[in-house]
C-alpha cells in the first residue's frame, strides 16, 4: 500500500484502539470512513504490565500496519487520561497503573520510528460514539447518548457528532460512570464486578465459590434462572434511572448501546427502557450499535482528521 497522490484517493488514517485486554490497530479509508478489513490487527494486552512492556506491545501492533498511511494517528484509550497532553492518569483504577504519569504520546512516537507526526488521543467511549455517529446507529441524531457496557459503563454525550464534556447539560466530565444510583456509585451496580457480586448474593448456597462471569449469568438468565434474570433487570433498570434526567436535560433523541454486555440485548434493552420510563425520562429509542467491533476505530479516525491541535 502506498500513499496516494495527485488524483488518487487520500492516504488511509492509522488508528489504535487500546483496551484493558487488547489493542487493535487498523487503517481507515478517509473516503468511506470504514476500516480496511485486511489491515485490522488485534493483539492481547496485559493492563498490569510495566510501562515499557505496554508501550512495546502497543507500538508493535501499530508497526505491523502496512506503510503508506497518513502521518496523524487516532488513538482511543480509556480514562483517566490527559487526552490533551498524552499523559496517563491511571493511579488507583486497577489497570494501566504503570502508565500513570507516563508520557504515552512521547513513548509511542518514539516506537513508531518516523511513521507518526501527530497522535490524537480520545476517550474510548467517545471514539465509539463518534464511530456510531459516522457509520452506525447514532447517524442522523444531532444529540445522542452512547453507552459501552463492558467491565464498567463507558458513555459519551454527542452534539453534532462531537463529544460534550462540560456544562450543565451533561454529567461531570460528560461521563455517566461518575453518577450515583440508590445512594451508591453507579458502577457498584452496573459493571462486571457489580453484576457478579449481586448474583453471588442471590445464591447464598454457592458458598465460597467464585460467581460465574457475566456472559454465563446471561446464558443462565435466558435458560430460565430467575436469579440471573433478576441481576440483569436490577442492573440495567438502575442504569436507566440514573440516565433519565440527563437524557432529558441534554435533549438526546436516542440512546445507542455497545460493548460486550450488549450482546445480551434481550436482557439489557427491556430493563434499561423500563428504568428510563420509571424515572420520568423522555421516550427515546434505545438502539443496539450497528458497528460494535469497528466503531471505536472509525471514531478515532474521525477525531484524527478533525482535531487541529493534536500532539
Helicity, in percent?
A: 25-40%
Rg, rounded, reads 20 Å
Q: Please, how many helices? A: 8
Which CATH architecture of the largest domain? 2-Layer Sandwich
Report the top-level CATH class of the largest domain. Alpha Beta
Strand line-up in the sheet with most strands: 3-2-1-4-7
Major beta sheet, specifics? 5 strands, mixed
Are there runs of 5+ residues with pLDDT below 50, and where? 1-6
Which structural class is indicated by helix and strand composition? alpha/beta
Compute the number of structural domains. 2
Tell the overall outline: globular
Listing every helix as H and every strand as E from the N terminus to the C terminus, the arrangement reads EEEHEEEHEHEEEEEHHHEHEH
Number of strands: 14
- Kindly, what is the distance between the CA atoms of the first and last residues, rounded to a whole number of angstroms? 26 Å
Strand content: 15-25%
Mean pLDDT: 92
The CATH H-level superfamily of the largest domain is ATPase, nucleotide binding domain
CATH topology of the largest domain: Nucleotidyltransferase, domain 5
Oligomer: single chain
Spell out the key features of this protein:
14 strands, alpha/beta, Nucleotidyltransferase, domain 5, 8 helices, 311 residues, 2 domains, globular, 19% strand, disordered N terminus, single chain, five-stranded mixed beta sheet
Amino acid at each position: 500500500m502506498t500513499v496516494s497522490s495527485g488524483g488518487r484517493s487520500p492516504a488511509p488514517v492509522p488508528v489504535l484502539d487500546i483496551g484493558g485486554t487488547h489493542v487493535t490497530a487498523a487503517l481507515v479509508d478517509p473516503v468511506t470512513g470504514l476500516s480496511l478489513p485486511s489491515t485490522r490487527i488485534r493483539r492481547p494486552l496485559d493492563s498490569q504490565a510495566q510501562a515499557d512492556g505496554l508501550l512495546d506491545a502497543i507500538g508493535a501492533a501499530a508497526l505491523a500496519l502496512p506503510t503508506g498511511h497518513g502521518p496523524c494517528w487516532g488513538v482511543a484509550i480509556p480514562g483517566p487520561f490527559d487526552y490533551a497532553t498524552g499523559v496517563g492518569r491511571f493511579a488507583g483504577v486497577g489497570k494501566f497503573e504503570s502508565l500513570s504519569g507516563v508520557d504515552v504520546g512521547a513513548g509511542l512516537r518514539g516506537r513508531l520510528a518516523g511513521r507518526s507526526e501527530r497522535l490524537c488521543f480520545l476517550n474510548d467511549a467517545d471514539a465509539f460514539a463518534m464511530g456510531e455517529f459516522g457509520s452506525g446507529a447514532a447517524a442522523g441524531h444531532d444529540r445522542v447518548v452512547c453507552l459501552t457496557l463492558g467491565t464498567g459503563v463507558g458513555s459519551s454525550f454527542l452534539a453534532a457528532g462531537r463529544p460534550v464534556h462540560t456544562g450543565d447539560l451533561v454529567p461531570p466530565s460528560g461521563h455517566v460512570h461518575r453518577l450515583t444510583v440508590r445512594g451508591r456509585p453507579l458502577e457498584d451496580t452496573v459493571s462486571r464486578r457489580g453484576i457478579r457480586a449481586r448474583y453471588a448474593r442471590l445464591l447464598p448456597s454457592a458458598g465460597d465459590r467464585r460467581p460465574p462471569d457475566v456472559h454465563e449469568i446471561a446464558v443462565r438468565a435466558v435458560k430460565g434462572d430467575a436469579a440471573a434474570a433478576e441481576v440483569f433487570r436490577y442492573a440495567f433498570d438502575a442504569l436507566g434511572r440514573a440516565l433519565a434526567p440527563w437524557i432529558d436535560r441534554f435533549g438526546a433523541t436516542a440512546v445507542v448501546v455497545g460493548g460486550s454486555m450488549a450482546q445480551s440485548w434481550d436482557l439489557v434493552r427491556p430493563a434499561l427502557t423500563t428504568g428510563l420510563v420509571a424515572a420520568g425520562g423522555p421516550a427515546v429509542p434505545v438502539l443496539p450499535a450497528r458497528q460494535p467491533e469497528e466503531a471505536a476505530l472509525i471514531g478515532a479516525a474521525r477525531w484524527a482528521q478533525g482535531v487541529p491541535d493534536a500532539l
